[in-house]
Design a protein that fits this description.
Shape of chain B: rod-shaped
Radius of gyration of chain A: 27 Å
Radius of gyration of chain B: 66 Å
Helix content of chain A: 40-55%
Order of helices and strands of chain A: HEHEHEHEEHEHEHEHEHEHEEH
Number of helices of chain B: 14
Largest sheet of chain A: 6 strands, parallel
Oligomer: heterodimer
Structural class of chain A: alpha/beta
Number of helices of chain A: 11
Number of strands of chain A: 12
Mean pLDDT of chain B: 83
Helix content of chain B: over 70%
Mean pLDDT of chain A: 85
Distance between the termini of chain A: 71 Å
């Protein structure tokens, strides 16, 4: 009898446990389903990030802006949240205005477009902060980006360091989208520094090639051609954006030109940083994209709070070479 | 106690277990039903968001087309439609989220709502411009509104797709949960069924087990084995009551049978005693009848002889014949076996007188009798054999100095009757043989008397008591003393004495 009572007790316990398990599993599943309609944070303001670039640098910048916004109760989201179809920058600005954004962070690769984009927001009295590229003639409230002169000087210094023999062929890859005032300023400063700093007797022939890194596979094809045609392969290759830099690293490796071509790149992506200790590239310009994103968000906050803000915030950068790469790689 | 029995009754236990099982089944079903209902409701609502997106899309289409109609025709109906659809669209927008939040779908809702509000502002401006006949303006506004309309449609499409993806995933998840719920419900139902089965089994075993033992025991009893042990039933229900009653009944039957057996044995023993007593009496009488052919004829003849002697003045002869007649009359009269001590003594007197005549007065007979007990009833023909034995085996060869002494003494519970002679005496072996019925010391071919063993046995049978007869002798030529104890308070003795006394009185 005692055995039977024990058996019944076990059975009842199993039933109760099963019922509890079923209940909990159902509740958990229902909670998961319902939680899709729930949210944890409600934001006070909305900033729209309008960009025509989806590079690693831009992504990093956007993520930093999102984090900075979250800390201050601001939702930062892309205007390209409507992913279909590919909207133009004008359409993205229209959408951002229609969404009644409290502020717009404009990240255009072509500074020439900025003048046509800012008026959309201006009409709706939405403040605009430009990042990386700028048009100071527009009514944007602030610009956060690199000082083109300093960037050009940094590249020039690296080219000087790379000059080895009597005759050096230097090729500067310029993005067709970014061939604007800033890139021109960078290029001219670069030339000045080289001319001023090169050793007498050392000649350098600098040429510029336009590459459309935003176009489908165009950058990779153009750079492959540079490395395939040996008569055109430069001694020093200067890349002014992240995409061309990565393409150059890959091409130098693929066509066994490591050491022959000194590559000076842009942006400290992981691949780029990995290539420096291996000697694939000489140096890269490390832009603190996260800081730019944070500063963009803070600039809008400041403007909305105080009604004014400084119209320029210089962004820090650093040339990463074999000597200091450990700091970045770490 | 009664209440306790009632609460433990089989009926209550059966009702209790049934209620328990039904409650368990009911609760399980309620639980499963509720879970299934919740899941079904949730599944029903899974695609509700897609439905609302369709409504939103359809409504903004109506707004846009009615605006276009108005711009195209400027009809009142189109304007009316426009305002109606605009209001309906606004109502639908009210259900959409308007805050920037950490949720992709809700953010899309917010974007759609805000863009829709911007769109409605544009359409309103377009309508107003049309009404104001500002052609350039309303065309510009219409283009801007159309652009927003396309963006909103993209947004709705994207949100609809997002909802559909989420909802499909949710639907699959809910279907999985339903599957799990189904399997869980089956398992739980099986487990409940198992528990109910065990409980019913336990209950039936509890009820039927003792009942089966009880029936087995009853069958044993029915087959005649009353010594079977009644199984102990601990339950206080009806079966427990039946078991204890059966046990008590069996005990009573056993006691009754034991009583019947004892009384039967007692009766048989008494019957046996009666038969034995009767047999001994018959034996004694037979011996007399054999010895004295027709004693009636003999003592009547003796009486006639006595009267004749009296007529002829032969007094001694007359007395002799009279004593002879008395002696034989007593023997004939005691056919029923009951006499008194007085009659026994008188019979001895007559017997001694006859012997003295026979043996020329050589037998010396002395008696000491306590007359207070002379009326005591006793079996007949007890003392005469003792005297006959004393004469025949004691003093026959020495009649000159032979003395026979009869003593009757009343003691506390008995009357002690002693017949003593100073004759040849008896050895211990002879005494033992007499006492053990191995030898009839006094039975000889020439003896008309009754044996001592016969006397002893009759005394024992009559009084149902041992030790009433004893023989003492110190050996050869030391004489013999035979003692008979007559119980004063023996039940039979008292009864016979009373009857006898009343009979004597009647006579």
């Amino acid at each position: 009898m005692k055995k039977l009572i024990a058996l019944v007790t076990i059975f009842v316990a199993v039933i109760l446990a099963s019922m509890a398990a079923v209940w909990l599993y159902c509740e958990k599943s229902l909670t998961e389903v319902r939680s899709q309609q729930e949210f944890t944070d409600v934001y006070n303001s909305l900033y729209v990030f309008v960009s025509d670039d989806d590079s690693v640098q831009t992504e990093s910048l956007f993520d930093a802006a999102v984090r900075a916004g979250k800390e201050t109760g601001v939702k930062v989201e892309r205007s390209s949240m409507l992913t279909y179809p590919e909207f133009t920058m004008q359409e993205k600005m229209t959408i951002a205005v229609a969404e009644k954004a409290d502020g717009i962070i404009l990240c255009s690769r072509n500074s020439g477009d900025i003048a046509s984009l800012v008026p959309y927001a201006e009409a709706a009295k939405i403040p605009v902060v430009t990042v990386l590229s700028d048009d100071s003639e527009t009514s944007r409230i602030s610009f956060i980006g690199l000082n083109s002169y300093e960037v050009g000087a940094a590249y020039g210094e690296q080219i000087l360091a790379a000059l080895k023999k009597d005759k050096n062929r230097i090729l500067v890859l310029m993005n067709t989208d970014t061939e604007t005032v800033q890139s021109s300023l960078i290029y001219s400063t670069m030339l000045q520094v080289i001319e001023r700093g090169k050793t007498p007797g050392v000649s350098s022939r600098i040429s510029v090639q336009s590459v459309n890194s935003a176009g489908a596979f165009e950058a990779e094809e153009a750079i492959r051609d540079i490395f395939v045609k040996s008569e055109e392969t430069p001694d020093i290759l200067v890349c002014l954006d992240a995409v061309t830099t990565e393409c150059a690293i890959q091409a130098a490796t693929d066509y066994n030109r490591v050491g022959e071509v000194s590559i000076i790149g842009y942006y400290a992506s992981k691949e780029t940083l990995d290539a420096i200790p291996k000697g694939i590239i000489q140096a890269t310009l490390a832009v603190d994209a996260e800081k730019i994103g944070t500063m963009a968000c803070e600039a809008l906050n400041e403007y909305l709070e105080l009604g004014y803000v400084s119209n320029y915030f210089p962004a820090d950068f650093q040339m990463v070479t074999a000597e200091n790469v450990k700091r970045y790689a770490g | 106690m009664q209440d306790e029995k009632k609460s433990n009754s089989i009926q209550n236990r059966l009702i209790g277990i049934m209620v328990l099982m039904l409650a368990a089944t009911l609760l399980t079903n309620l639980f499963i039903n509720r879970r299934i209902n919740t899941m079904v409701r949730q599944i029903d609502s899974v695609f509700a968001s897609n439905v609302s997106m369709d409504e939103l899309s359809g409504m903004i289409e109506l707004v846009n087309s009615s605006m276009f109609d108005y711009l195209n025709t400027k009809s009142s109906a189109a304007l009316e439609n426009y305002y109606r659809y605009e209001q309906d669209f606004k109502d639908l927008l009210e259900d959409l989220n308007d805050k920037p939040v950490d949720n992709e779908a809700l953010n899309l809702e917010k974007n759609i709502r805000r863009m829709s509000e911007s769109y409605l502002e544009k359409t309103e401006s377009t309508i107003q411009a049309k009404r104001g006949r500002n052609v350039e303006r309303y065309r510009q506004y219409y283009e801007e509104a159309s652009e927003l309309f396309s963006f909103i449609n993209y947004g709705i499409y994207e949100l609809d797709s997002l909802y559909f993806r989420n909802n499909s995933a949710n639907y699959e998840k809910l279907l999985r949960v339903m599957g799990f719920l189904e399997r869980g419900s089956v398992l739980i139902s099986l487990a409940v069924f198992g528990v109910c089965l065990i409980l019913v089994n336990m209950m039936i075993r509890t009820i039927v087990g003792p009942l089966k033992k009880l029936s087995d025991t009853a069958l044993e009893v029915a087959s005649g084995n009353l010594d079977v042990a009644v199984p102990s039933v601990e339950s206080r229900d009806e079966i427990g009551i039946v078991a204890s009653a059966f046990s008590a009944m069996l005990k009573s039957i056993r006691e009754y049978i034991a009583q019947v057996r004892e009384s039967t044995l007692k009766e048989a023993r008494m019957k046996e005693q009666e038969l034995e007593l009767e047999a001994h009496l018959k034996e004694a009488q037979l011996q007399f009848l054999q010895a004295q052919i027709n004693p009636h004829f003999l003592f009547n003849s003796l009486n006639a002889g006595a009267q004749l002697a009296m007529l002829e003045d032969a007094e001694s002869t007359g007395t002799y014949l009279e004593k002879m007649a008395d002696f034989f009359r007593y023997n004939v009269k005691k056919n029923n076996g009951v006499s008194t001590l007085r009659e026994e003594i008188e019979s001895i007197d007559s017997y001694i007188y006859v012997l003295n005549v026979r043996f020329a007065g050589d037998i010396t007979y002395e008696k000491q009798v306590d007359e207070s007990v002379s009326g005591l009833a006793m079996p007949g023909l007890i003392l005469q054999p003792l005297v006959e034995n004393a004469v025949t085996h004691g003093i026959r060869n020495r009649l000159d100095d032979g003395i026979i002494t009869l003593t009757v003494l009343k003691e506390e519970a008995y009357v002690r009757v002693t017949v003593r002679d100073n004759g040849e005496g008896m050895t211990k072996e002879q005494i033992q043989a007499v006492m053990e019925d191995r030898m009839n010391a006094v039975r000889t071919s020439d003896s008309p008397g009754i044996g001592l063993s016969n006397v002893k046995n009759r005394l024992t049978l009559y009084y149902s008591e041992e030790g009433l007869f004893s023989i003492q002798s110190d050996g050869k030529d030391c004489g013999t003393e035979v003692t008979v104890l007559l119980p004063l308070k023996n039940r039979r003795n008292v009864k016979e004495t009373e009857e006898y006394v009343s009979d004597s009185d009647r006579r």
